[in-house]
Amino acid sequence: MNGSVPNTKSSNLWRDVNWFALHTKPRHESFASTNVTRLGIESFLPLLKAERWVHGAARAIIKPLFPGYFFARFRPEASLESVEHSRGVLYVVSSGSFPIPIEDEIIRDIQNRAREDGLIPIRQQYFKSGDRVSIQSGPFEGMMGRVERELDDHKRVAIFLETLFNARVLIERRWIEAEAA
Questions:
Q1: CB of 169 within 8 A of CB of 156?
Q2: Among residues 61, 63, 65, 70, which one has the least CA distance to residue 88?
Q3: What integer pLDDT is reported at residue 171 of this predicted model?
Q4: Coil, helix or strand for 31?
Q5: How large is the C-alpha radius of gyration of the chain?
Q6: Alpha helix stretches (DSSP H) within 52-179
Q7: E strands, the chain, in order
Q8: Nearby residues of 103 by Cβ (< 8 Å), 6 or more positions away
């Protein structure tokens, strides 16, 4: 580093129109986004198709890409208070009393990933032998383990559970998530 200040765009946070992340009440993303849009403010709620098991059967559902959040583009000086008081919105993501703007590029990249139906495709996560995983749901929820192998049906993964007397179990792949490296 040469000690110089990073190149930042000159702007006035309160007067410029920027994208901001809004935190919503649980499962109120669509409701909150609609209410903010009714204020004449552009909003963006990225959605994806997922699978949920209901009474032992897989059902396709549409859910937010970022549960509990959506994005809105506005000028804080004019709209911050009305946005924060919109039904379903808990708050605009901020640092202290300053809302944190999100670069247009980031929102545009997410928008560009959307298909014609408006959904964001998510690539399936593949596990390698030795990957450390945490079990997110099911009877072993909260436990940690290492992947031994994926089964041929691509729905189950053989896991060596470190927290259960070194047991080997088969887990539905939808129940596990890779640990950050």
A1: no
A2: 70
A3: 77
A4: helix
A5: 21
A6: 76-84, 104-113
A7: 18-24, 42-44, 47-54, 57-64, 69-74, 89-92, 94-95, 98-99, 101-102, 132-135, 144-150, 156-161, 167-172, 176-178
A8: 19
Cα of 165 vs its chain's centroid, Å: 34
Size of the chain in residues:
181
Does the pLDDT at position 98 exceed 50? yes
Return the bridge partners of 62, or none: 49
Q: For residue 55, give both structure tokens.
A: 């009474």
Reference 67, options 115, 109, 24; nearest CA is: 24
Pairing of strands 94-95, 101-102: unpaired
pLDDT at 6 over 90: no
51 Cβ contact partners less than 8 Å away, ≥ 6 residues apart: 58, 59, 60, 61, 174
Banded pLDDT at 168 (limits 50, 70, 90): confident
Neighbours of 76 (CB within 10 A): 22
In 128-181, alpha helices (H): none
C-alpha pair distances (Å), 77 with each of 15, 40, 69, 81, 133: 6, 15, 22, 9, 45
